[in-house]
Design goal:
three-stranded mixed β-sheet; 3 strands; alpha+beta; YefM-like fold
Length: 89
Amino acid sequence: MMIKPSTCLRNEYNDISSFCKEKQQPVFLTKNGEGDLVVMSMEAYTYREEMLDLREKLLEAEAQRISGAKTYSMEEVNQQLEELINGAE
């Protein structure tokens, strides 16, 4: 974990940017000795957002399953897809 004072963002921007991109790790910035910001590469941010979205969808699906929602086997799903592809009703 890299922790830097906020003044480093201005003075060491290129180094911080390179670190975030190469290591795929965030940099934590402090202001007056207290945590203030987190800086990360756009790639790491996008990946994190996608994982959080997926996790949310999986939790929702699990909650539906637990509450008794209809589930489908792989065979049932494959059959439905084949029917859609082949135009069968």
